Amino acid sequence: MKSSEDKLENLKKEKLARKGKNQQARADRKGQVADVASAHRECFGTEPFAVATAPCRFHLMGEHTWYFGGKTLSMSMDKYVSLSVSRRTDDNLYFHSAENGETKHIALSALRFRKEDKWANSIKAVIHGFVSAGLFDLSEGTCGFDFCVASDIPQFSGMGVTTALKVCAASALNEILSLDCSESELFSVIDNGNAEFLKEGKETASESHFSENITAMFAKENSLIITNNSEKPLSQSSFLNVDFDFPGKTILLVDTKVPRFSVWDESSIMKAEYKSILDSLKVKKNVFGGWCYDSDTEVKSTLGSVFGADNKHLVSVIREHKLVLDAYDAVMKKDFMAFVKAVNASHINMSEFYDMSCPEIDWILRRLIEINPNRDGKFNPVCCGRVTGKGSSRCLYAILDDVYVPEFEERLSDYTKIFGFKTSCSRIKSANGVQITHFGE
């Protein structure tokens, strides 16, 4: 048995290791700020006024429950989107990508969505949001801006890149225009830009950016963030950061390289009648958000009028909500075993009931939970993972003891031999939300 001195020494080592990882993450972030500022100077010949950086994110659980007011458990990543901005002397908007050298431009007075502008439409949507809120004027004589963008992760990966870009744009424009907007006002600017400019209306969109916006804006190092999707717009009860205090664990994000596919359209269950049915199953309870779903008996009875795949998918939404609360409770109590069970159960729920996985991802995660260092002879996994990413994704995350990473990587090599897809695997740490670096004008 370890002495108290040994335990204290181990805690000191773990604290130093975490401090070192956080310092490296901050250094990486500063490096990207310097890189995008350099690219801005090279492209536009001017010093950027400011650079905003925001983290990408992945959802651990609950991302498919938002329409019904459920909870989402997310983690920011030390993979960033950066955006620099400077003023122009004319009324043009220029958008430059530091990755591929692509440049787009449009007159500020002719601000509109153009399909060929791709990622630049996200920045234009934020400008529209400021105009819609009466915070920015498009009248004749208003000067435009130069923007330069860089990202650690490709856009449309389903890891919150586009949302991080919007948060960066809102924060940078808030600075250069000296608007002094509150966090709530910036949140509304982004939301209105989505709904009005990008046509991502709250009642018709097949996905929500609420938890993504919150994560990009408010995430903290060494934390998870739980979002209450029934508390919109932004309020004090919309989200909560919770310490993810499990030393000696590695978080891996794995791209399985399986071609993207679409099994079914989630919007098929996003109907007012189904929302009304699920609302009738909600009961008040002393949990985060103040409610949970009623007993299994009530669920079966109430959903009796819903048939086929819709029934299965709605049952999955209800199960997922409980699993998010279970995982959140486990993190709060620092009970890693309970957290593992909730995450692994969530993947089974996504795979078998919500039809949001594939055989290749299921195979990897079965191999993951077979990594079992327990000495009691019982199969009690201490590793967890789940499908994540946009829609029917090809990505997964895995959380396991540091010492078992090599064994998991061996399983990924076996996966390549069996399925023919070579994975990419990144170690992930949580990061702080959007930050501004001033350069001056």
Description:
The chain has 11 helices and 14 strands. The chain is 41% helix and 21% strand. The protein is an alpha+beta fold.
Write the layout of secondary structure elements.
Layout: H1 4-44, E1 50-61, E2 71-87, E3 92-97, E4 103-107, H2 120-132, E5 145-151, H3 161-176, H4 183-197, H5 210-218, E6 223-228, E7 239-243, E8 249-255, H6 272-280, E9 282-284, E10 291-293, H7 296-302, H8 308-332, H9 336-353, H10 359-369, E11 384-388, E12 395-401, H11 405-419, E13 424-428, E14 435-438
Parallel strand pairs: 3-5
Antiparallel strand pairs: 1-2, 1-14, 2-5, 2-6, 3-4, 6-7, 8-12, 8-13, 9-10, 11-12
Helix pairs in contact: 2-3, 2-4, 3-4, 4-5, 8-9, 10-11
Describe the structure concisely.
The protein has 11 helices and 14 strands.
One letter per element, helices H and strands E, the order comes to HEEEEHEHHHEEEHEEHHHHEEHEE
Using only C-alpha atoms, the radius of gyration works out to 23 Å
Mean pLDDT: 90
The outline comes out as: globular
**In what range is the share of β-strand residues?**
15-25%
What is the rounded distance between the termini? Answer: 62 Å
**Helix share, percent:** 40-55%
Counted by DSSP, the helix tally is 11
The biggest sheet amounts to: 8 strands, mixed
Total strand count, please?
A: 14
Q: Low-confidence stretches at least 5 residues in length (pLDDT < 50)?
A: 202-206
Alpha-beta classification: alpha+beta
